[in-house]
């Protein structure tokens, strides 16, 4: 086995520490900012010694933003709710539509199957801004603009190709013979799909779902243009912190902490499941 | 005769469009009787696995019919055919233990738990996998996975058992042991089995009849003995048998009393006309070119024979393989004792007409298999 010298270990530790600091510091700083007032945040030089305050969180949760110019109503909690609702339903719908489609594309090569799969992927190629204007017009004609239904539909442009292509790869990695072995033992193809293909591709489906959730959660432009205030997610809602009397850094920071938490929690939870699932699915040939 | 378990009629398999794609199986006709063990023997890409998968229902039949129990099944889903299969790639369910994998095959049969346990225990004992029944497929060796996969197929009470290279990954001793046990298991229960193999020892040991395939074409379908003694064509003759049959192309001449074969480098083999039957002689005289074949163990060293120069002399512990330069090619002889022939020495060999196979020089079809069988 390979032996590592103390020097090598030390260097490795330093490198890892640098990487962790690089990636974790902004989150850490924002976490600190969320407990500070605008004054301490903007103080020069910045200090990590301050009297923590929960006023930012209180303002977000009560929906009353107190600025120098007076009190503003903000709908942050509603935005957070919208984000959760839109992301969860979009991913759920994309899974319901995308997983069977991915299975079909993985297992059945039919005329034009590659073309259809590629077309679906190509939704990810165009910059969203490019399709936004025509989309807005269509949605207005169809009465879909400013509806949850319309937003979830548009979110499929983000979620569906991701799920389709990632999950398809996982299905292709499962030996078709494992499914044949189950079918020949007296089961229909649908039972095989549910009992063999789905569980074996489980980690892949979870990973794709998680990724799609993050993409949907972070979406900005579609929601900005197609939704009005009461249906906007946090990404758009955060604009409200740019007020006439300045930018509310403290509230922005606490809003970020709150809006990162669900995705972070989901990722941490899924990570455990992913590792477990991947080691279980390791098939020795 | 007993009832037909499987009847394959005029089956073609194309990968890609019919008549334009890759023609993997060509006009296959075959019948398998209930209780028979059939081996599909051939090299890689000969169409044997395609045939097996068409029987199982995993590959569509491009043309022709497959019947089981008198019903045409070629359009049926695998679930409707009641066949069991052991896959070459094992295809065990990764999340299940070996025991669960094997017992799983019985799930659809709705047997009581005690019956299932007993059957699984029997199979585990038969295949020498009792010690790994609680392990997961990813933690056992290829040979163990293969036996688990075989167990999963054999445990089922199916109309037909399809075994794709069932013992390819096993070490030789185990393979020899299991060959006997599996044959006994299949015969005892009156099961019908088709195994795909490229190992002729396995085919000879297990099968009642062997179907030799090459290039998608069924070359011969007969008992192991008949395939060995009366190969239908040059391919079967040279493919089956270890070491392979010696073959030499030859011209023919003859009088009313003699038959002579002219080989390369001026080697001439003279036989009496009475060494061949009348019918064979008539066939021979129609041709100017044939291919002569003789099995290595049938080549005799004898005074007055034709000279051949020894190139290799190998004692394998129980037999000697001698390769000698003969008529521009190599003649391999198998003898049961050690010999002290030295490399370069000339030996006199005799090709007994009773062990001489003669094939058509153009299409390779067999003309004669030696006098006593002709």
UniProtKB/TrEMBL annotation, chain A:
The keyword Disulfide bond does not apply. Residues 80-270 form the ABC transmembrane type-1 domain. Keywords: Cell membrane, Membrane, Sugar transport, Transmembrane, Transmembrane helix, Transport. Its main location: membrane. It is a multi-pass membrane protein. CDD domains: TM_PBP2. The chain crosses the membrane at residues 12-32, 84-105, 117-136, 148-167, 204-229, 249-270. It comes from the Bacteria. InterPro entries: BP-dep_ABC_trans_perm, MetI-like, MetI-like_sf. It is found in: Cell membrane. The keyword S-adenosyl-L-methionine does not apply. PANTHER family: INNER MEMBRANE ABC TRANSPORTER PERMEASE PROTEIN YCJP (PTHR32243:SF18), MALTOSE TRANSPORT SYSTEM PERMEASE-RELATED (PTHR32243). Belongs to the binding-protein-dependent transport system permease family. This is Multiple sugar transport system permease protein. It comes from Rhizobium herbae.
From TrEMBL, chain B:
Residues 8-240 form the ABC transporter domain. Keywords: ATP-binding, Cell inner membrane, Cell membrane, Membrane, Nucleotide-binding, Sugar transport, Transport. It is a peripheral membrane protein. This is Multiple sugar transport system ATP-binding protein. Belongs to the ABC transporter superfamily. GO terms for molecular function: ATP binding. InterPro entries: AAA+_ATPase, ABC_transporter-like_ATP-bd, ABC_transporter-like_CS, ABC_transpr_FbpC, ABC_transpr_MalK/UgpC-like, Mo/tungstate-bd_C_term_dom, NA-bd_OB-fold, P-loop_NTPase. SUPFAM superfamilies: MOP-like, P-loop containing nucleoside triphosphate hydrolases. It is found in: Cell inner membrane. SMART domains: AAA. The lineage of its organism: Bacteria, Pseudomonadati, Pseudomonadota, Alphaproteobacteria, Hyphomicrobiales. PANTHER family: ABC TRANSPORTER ATP-BINDING PROTEIN, MALTODEXTRIN IMPORT ATP-BINDING PROTEIN MSMX. It holds the Pfam family ABC_tran. Its main location: membrane. The keyword Oxidoreductase does not apply. Transmembrane segments: none annotated.
């Amino acid at each position: 086995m390979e032996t590592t010298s103390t020097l090598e270990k030390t260097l490795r530790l330093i490198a890892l520490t640098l990487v962790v600091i690089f990636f974790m510091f902004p989150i850490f700083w924002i976490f600190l900012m969320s407990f500070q007032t605008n004054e301490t945040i903007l103080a020069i030089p910045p200090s990590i010694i301050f009297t923590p305050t929960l006023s930012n969180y209180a303002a977000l949760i009560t929906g009353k933003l107190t600025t120098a110019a007076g009190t503003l109503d903000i709908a942050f909690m509603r935005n957070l709710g919208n984000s959760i609702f839109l992301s969860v339903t979009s991913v759920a719908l994309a899974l319901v539509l995308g997983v069977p489609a991915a299975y079909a594309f993985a297992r059945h090569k039919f005329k034009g199957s590659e073309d259809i799969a590629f077309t679906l992927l190509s939704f990810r190629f165009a910059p969203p801004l490019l399709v936004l204007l025509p989309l807005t017009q269509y949605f207005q004609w169809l009465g879909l603009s400013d509806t949850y239904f319309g937003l979830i539909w548009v979110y499929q442009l983000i979620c569906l190709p991701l799920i389709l292509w990632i999950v398809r790869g996982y299905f292709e990695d499962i030996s078709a013979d494992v499914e044949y072995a189950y079918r020949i033992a007296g089961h229909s193809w649908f039972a095989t799909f549910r009992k063999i293909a789905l569980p074996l591709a489980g980690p892949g489906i979870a990973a794709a779902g998680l990724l799609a959730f993050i993409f949907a959660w972070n979406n900005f432009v579609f929601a900005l243009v197609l939704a009005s205030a009461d249906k906007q997610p946090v990404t758009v809602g955060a604009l409200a912190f740019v007020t006439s009397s300045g930018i509310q850094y403290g509230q922005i920071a606490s809003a970020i902490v709150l809006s990162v938490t669900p995705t972070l929690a989901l990722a941490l939870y899924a990570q455990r499941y992913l590792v477990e699932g991947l080691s279980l699915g390791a098939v020795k040939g | 005769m007993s009832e037909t378990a499987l009847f394959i009629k005029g089956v073609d398999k194309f990968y890609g469009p019919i008549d334009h794609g890759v023609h993997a199986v060509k006009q296959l006709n075959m019948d398998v009787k209930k209780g028979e063990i059939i081996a599909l023997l051939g090299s890689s890409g000969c169409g044997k696995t395609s045939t097996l998968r068409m029987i199982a229902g995993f590959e569509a039949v491009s043309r022709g019919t497959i019947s089981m129990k008198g019903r045409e099944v070629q359009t049926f889903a695998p679930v409707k055919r009641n066949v069991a299969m052991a896959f070459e790639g094992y295809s065990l369910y990764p999340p299940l233990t070996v025991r669960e994998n094997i017992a799983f095959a019985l799930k659809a049969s709705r047997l009581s738990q005690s019956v299932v346990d007993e059957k699984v225990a029997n199979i585990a004992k038969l295949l020498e996998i009792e010690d790994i029944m609680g392990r997961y497929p990813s933690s056992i060796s290829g040979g163990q996975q293969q036996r688990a996969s075989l167990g999963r197929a054999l445990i089922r009470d199916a109309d037909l058992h399809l075994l794709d290279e069932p013992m390819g990954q096993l070490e030789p001793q185990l393979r020899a042991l299991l060959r006997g046990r599996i044959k006994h298991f299949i015969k005892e229960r009156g099961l019908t089995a088709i195994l795909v193999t490229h190992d002729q020892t396995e085919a000879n040991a297990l099968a009642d009849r062997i179907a030799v395939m090459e290039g998608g074409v069924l070359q011969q379908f007969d008992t192991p003995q008949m395939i060995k003694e009366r190969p239908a064509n040059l391919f079967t003759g040279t493919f089956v048998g270890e070491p392979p049959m010696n073959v030499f192309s030859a011209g023919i001449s003859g009088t009313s009393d003699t038959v002579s074969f002219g080989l390369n480098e001026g080697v001439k083999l003279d036989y009496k006309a009475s060494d061949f039957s009348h019918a064979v002689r008539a066939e021979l005289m129609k041709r100017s070119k044939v291919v002569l074949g003789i099995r290595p163990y049938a080549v005799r060293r004898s005074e007055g024979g034709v000279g051949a120069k020894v190139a290799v002399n190998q004692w394998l512990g129980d037999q000697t393989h001698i390769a000698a330069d003969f008529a521009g090619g190599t003649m391999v002889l198998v003898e049961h004792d050690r010999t002290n022939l030295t490399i370069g020495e000339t030996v006199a060999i005799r090709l007994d007409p009773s062990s001489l196979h003669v094939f058509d020089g153009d299409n390779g079809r067999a003309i004669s298999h030696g006098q006593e069988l002709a």
